[in-house]
Amino acid sequence: MAVLNCWEFKKCERIPGGAKATELGICPAAVESHTTGMNRGLNGGRACWAIAGTLCDGVVQGTFASKISSCLKCKFYQLVNEEEGVNHQSVGDILAKLR
Question: Kindly report the CA angle at 96 between 99 and 14, in degrees rounded to 5?
Fold first, then answer.
């Protein structure tokens, strides 16, 4: 089964060449290559909760510390957690890749 990246799940169109990239900008998760492969995602597509500046519910999210509480309630985060199970890469692992 193919897994979805956040921009596919959320249908945000903030990827390079996406319909909303010019209007809203390209999402940092769509281009964060350090996290490619984490939770089987492309770029930051399955690690978006650890990437600053993502757009959720029409609001630009700030740093990891300021956004993680809302991310943990996100349907996409919960889906990734369920799909990855014991292989779900921790926030600590993701943040280490971003340093």
Answer: 70
